[in-house]
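Student: I would love a firmer grasp of how sequence relates to backbone shape in proteins. I am handing you a single protein, as its sequence and its fold in token form. I am told such tokens are a discrete way to write the fold. I hope you can help me see how the letters and the tokens relate. Take your time, and here it is.
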Amino acid sequence: MKKSKVLAFVLSVCLIGALFTGCTSQNANTSPTPGTNSPVAGDPKVASSYDDVFEALSAAANSGYDYYGANISFNGAMREEMATMADGAASAPAAAPPMDGDNLTSNDKGSNYSDTNVQVDGVDEADIVKTDGEYIYVLRKNNLLIFKADGENTTLVSTVKVAESDSETADGRYVSEYASELYVSGDTAIVLLSYYSSGPYDEKPYTDGDIEGPVYDEDNTVSKAAFYDISDRANPVHKAELGQDGYLQTSRLIDGTLYLISNYYIYNWDQENDGTYVPRMYTGEERTLVGADTISIMPAPFITSSSYTVIGAYDVDAGTLKTSQSLLGGGTTVYMTDSMLYVASSTSVQTQSDPYKDSVYTVIDYTMESVTGITSFDVTDGGLTLDASGEVPGRINDQFSMDAYDGTLRLVTTTYASSWSEYIDEDKDFVNYIWDESPSANALFVLDDGLDIIGSVENLAEDEQVYSARFDGTIGYFVTFRQVDPLFAVDLSDPTNPTVLSELKITGFSEYLHLYGENRLFGLGMNADEEGRTNGMKLVMFDTTDPTDVTVKHSLALESYYSAALYNHKAILIAPAKDIIAFPTDSGYDIYGYSEADGFVKKATIGALEWSGDSRGLYIGDYAYIIDYEHLTVLDMVSFELLKTLSF
């Protein structure tokens, strides 16, 4: 691909607090070819000085990148309708691999209590409710509540105010702080906080064209981790508070190291003031700029917004910062194993041909294609170092679209491309456009440890897009949808030659897939008619005994239309050993069981006392505990009789 200057081509305008689409453009003799290793080419560059960072920002702005754009990954709330063309894929037989203990579920490993439902075993994810099997920790209304879990004798042992909500400082600044999620690691509780401050402002308004408004001082958005000593559960003690610039994106906890990932947006930068364009790390009230050598600059096409992904590694026991890395160009999807952290960044790349003549016209052909960049960091032994980068065609749906296995990274994407031609009549000063079809499809790519593509299967599911994915060793499963729900099973035993084994089509779709015991795959999603109109939620259990012929073992249509678990895997409790599949709905909290003979059977519904989408369920020993916005409800695990309700 010939590199050249970038054309201004704005796809969208940002909305604060949302995800955004972005694009870049470049001249090329031909458009990028799906399946090649470098649709946009280039690796992140480690900055040698802050000047390198400033120059990259300035080059992006001057070249016409979408300043307010940002990278986007599909989620349940933001779906794009896309026209496609696709080929069917032939299947090849392969035996299903036996499931080991790690694949049963992240909720239920035969222990006496349930954990947060996470993607990768041993890699904890923050949530609003945690348990260590003896106590239950709840984050509500900026308070940390600790309950002694003892069935009917469950009691609240302490309440700690962990954030101050909205306030105004003595110097006139507006401050907002709220607690979002937490971890519990031994005798330490870690509360994740989002902090924002702005003002004071000059009473004399500025004027920008027809727009008038007050002049605000520097805005400041910080993601924080507050560490509490909970060795005495009745008397938690605040011991440290650390932070980093940006909105909290996600986090992980591995063997006593907390990884905090934030998105830091900058809007005005001044070369004379490094603090206007370089992220900062915080220890209490002290703040320090990150070192230039910890900033990696993504290739130009991915700097579609002036944003960073900031990653801080914190020692939980010591309550100190161990190290940090910042990625200029940012990313919106994070996947992590016990040894690697992957940041994915999706954007669109426009290419154009050299001008050529057609009759009286000068013609330029354009192509717009989606592409996802992936940057990996080595986190072995609690470290954090830049490792590799690569690109694949298409956009990923969520973190479950990525999976590391045996030295490879597998990704499922929805690919999209549009093309058009510009016909220019210079004599008559007239321009006409001819648009071609805009094909989209779906693909699975396999990358080596250097994040180069070594295998792929492409052009799957015409006119559809990926809604969910799950990997089980050498088999990958993913669901696409527009009118029907194809569940693809792909053989990945030869990473250089992924092969579609089967394609099961049913109405509706699964937003979340979960490995459920031996040769079973559970799906939580939406039911739909033949025209693709949704009409309520649906549970489905797939039989994956023969991946060349995956079938539906059981399904159940629900009256509910919404659950937080459709879009947040941490909201669902799945414990095959306890015969429980439980999640919040729009009418309360539902608990189901599953058997080979009877399929899905509802065991209980906890009415909406003060229901919210943030309800959680867990079990400890012989008791189930349901936590809604204002109550903790205790149930008998056998009869599901309501035993006790505590109000916060």
About this structure: Confidence is low (pLDDT under 50) at residues 1-41, 64-106, 203-209, 213-217. Helices lie at 50-62. The CA atoms of residues 291 and 331 lie 20 Å apart.
